């Protein structure tokens, strides 16, 4: 058996022994949103450290556990804390939790993150529906022997963010009176923030926001047939637009500030994704 698939199957057995809940929606919580998982109707939690071979999150603001439970009656699995490529994991390990949530039965995946704004009309604290993405300097998680049990060798990515789910997020924002931009997310490797020249280049490429996660997760989920959607929270203006040097503290502070609104949008979106 393919080495990655074997590891995935072992992780699945460990988690299945701890819960029989079948999630419909999988959610990844980005910077600042971590507290959301504590507010849902929790059934079981499984620490990443309890799952042999599971990558461990090393970033401040990202705790590491899978939370199983219900959001307004919708069965969900939540990644409370994600792992990033810049932590030194190869990209196969970075997306292992996403694949695991897919194998647990989740049909849809809601990705959230904190981002820097490249689009000059965006402000810190704004939200953006991710309509499409660019990977810059990050390898595809599908490199290597294809795992036929998950998906095809050359998967189509022309609707990587599912249009029906995007519409559900739009209507959620609308009903809550939350302003929602739309645009393109570019994933960089990090951990350094970008240079102003890189940000200008990404703008020319058509990107609206920049972050260090998400795009590789969306590819892995799409490969295995999950429906994917994503919401970004603008934590800062990107390099060259921001008047001050960028810090992780600034990202966390702004993401924390926006969290109450973000949580409302996530809850409403989950209910509609299930509907
Ligand atoms: N760049 C990259 N990743 C980020 C940023 C940024 O400005 N803000 C939050 N995540």
Summarize the structure.
With 275 residues, the protein is an alpha/beta fold. The chain has seven helices and nine strands. The longest helix is centred in the C-terminal third of the chain and has 27 residues, at 248-274.
Explained architecture:
The chain has helices at residues 3-16, 91-94, 96-103, 163-176, 196-205, 215-223, 248-274; strands at 25-29, 41-47, 65-71, 74-80, 108-117, 127-135, 180-187, 209-211, 227-237. It is α/β, with parallel strands linked by helices and 275 residues long. Helix 4 links the parallel strand 6 (127-135) and strand 7 (180-187). The longest helix has 27 residues, at 248-274. The model has no long low-confidence stretch (mean pLDDT 94). Bound molecules: hypoxanthine.
* Biggest sheet: strand arrangement: 5-8-7-6-9
Helix fraction, binned, reads: 25-40%
Separation of the first and last Cα atoms? 37 Å
Order of helices and strands: HEEEEHHEEHEHEHEH
Beta percentage is: 15-25%
**Average pLDDT reading:** 94
Q: Main β-sheet, in a few words?
A: 5 strands, mixed, barrel
Structural class: alpha/beta
Coarse morphology: globular
Bound molecules: hypoxanthine
- The helix count comes to 7
**Total number of strands:** 9
Cα gyration radius (Å): 17 Å
Low-confidence stretches: none
Keywords for this entry:
275 residues; five-stranded mixed barrel; binds hypoxanthine; globular; 9 strands; 7 helices; alpha/beta; 24% strand
């Amino acid at each position: 058996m393919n080495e990655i698939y074997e590891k995935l199957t072992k992780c699945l057995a460990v988690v299945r022994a701890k819960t029989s809940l079948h999630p419909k929606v999988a959610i990844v919580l980005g910077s600042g949103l971590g507290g959301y998982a504590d507010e849902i109707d929790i059934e079981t939690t499984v620490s990443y450290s309890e799952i042999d071979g599971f990558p461990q999150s090393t970033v401040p603001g990202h705790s590491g556990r899978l939370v199983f439970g219900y959001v307004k009656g919708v069965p969900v699995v939540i990644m409370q804390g994600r792992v990033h490529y810049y932590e030194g994991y190869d990209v196969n390990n970075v997306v292992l939790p996403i694949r695991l949530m897919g194998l647990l039965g989740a049909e849809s995946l809601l990705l959230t993150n904190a981002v820097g704004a490249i689009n000059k009309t965006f402000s810190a604290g704004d939200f953006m529906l991710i309509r499409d993405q660019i990977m810059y300097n990050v390898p595809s998680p599908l490199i290597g022997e294809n795992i036929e049990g998950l998906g095809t060798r050359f998967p189509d990515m022309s609707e990587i963010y599912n249009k029906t789910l995007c519409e559900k997020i739009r209507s959620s924002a609308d009903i809550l009176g939350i302003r929602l931009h739309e645009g393109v997310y570019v994933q960089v490797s990090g951990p350094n923030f970008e240079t102003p020249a890189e940000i200008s280049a990404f703008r020319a490429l058509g990107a609206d926001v920049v972050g260090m996660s998400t795009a590789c997760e969306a590819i892995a989920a799409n490969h295995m047939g999950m429906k994917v959607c994503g919401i970004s929270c603008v934590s800062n203006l990107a390099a060259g637009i921001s008047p001050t040097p960028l810090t992780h503290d600034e990202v966390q502070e702004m993401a924390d500030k926006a969290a109450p609104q973000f949580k409302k949008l996530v809850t409403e979106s989950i209910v509609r994704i299930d509907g």
